[in-house]
């Protein structure tokens, strides 16, 4: 048995030498490794791109690009003034409100004031054509107890009295603003409990997607779809929310639903004169069929 074990180890070493060092050190399941590495600080979708070019910092529960490793300030300035510069703002948190328009506006009016500028009831914003920005305060406490600045977007009307509103907040303000929204709408009961499978350890994930052969080599499960058959473990939640907490709440009296959509909706900011051209070339309008 000892000879067989020594032979297996020797064969494994011989095969490992055929691969380059980078290939030998690569994790057998990159997705499992990435999920393991971002348990404490969530990665944005563009994390890998930024990690190769930026000094990364851990703030607000995320891993964010802080400053470039090379002196690219002139290139960024040139892009902003003559071309197009893209910023990843997906770390901003999105709070979604659903309910009757009158009920939403009635309660939202308590946490903002027309003296500071726009409100949620502004006609151009209420129609869904434009994004609005304002400062939020604790209910009926203006001009004291300011919560912080937010931006908001109404979903355009579809003929129903029910509306949908997205409020974008900085992750440092998210918990306070969410708590105030739940208070004014009296959303104490969760609409649904976020029941997710616990994120398994890397060794458990490897056992799920790898089969150890007699020679000690690791290979993925054979399947007709190949790599597509490998299960993908995604971490549900974001840097400001525990993955096993509720993420949606409903008001029993009014039916208003508040949902935490953080990291479910990506957000990018385009700056520069060619921003519109980039969008028109990237996004294709869907054909609308009328019955």
TrEMBL record:
<dbReference type="GO" id="GO:0000172">
    <property type="term" value="C:ribonuclease MRP complex"/>
</dbReference>
<dbReference type="GO" id="GO:0001682">
    <property type="term" value="P:tRNA 5'-leader removal"/>
</dbReference>
<dbReference type="InterPro" id="IPR009723">
    <property type="entry name" value="Pop1_N"/>
</dbReference>
<feature type="domain" description="Pop1 N-terminal">
    <location>
        <begin position="4"/>
        <end position="99"/>
    </location>
</feature>
<protein>
    <submittedName>
        <fullName>POP1 protein</fullName>
    </submittedName>
</protein>
<dbReference type="InterPro" id="IPR039182">
    <property type="entry name" value="Pop1"/>
</dbReference>
<dbReference type="Pfam" id="PF06978">
    <property type="entry name" value="POP1_N"/>
</dbReference>
<dbReference type="GO" id="GO:0005655">
    <property type="term" value="C:nucleolar ribonuclease P complex"/>
</dbReference>
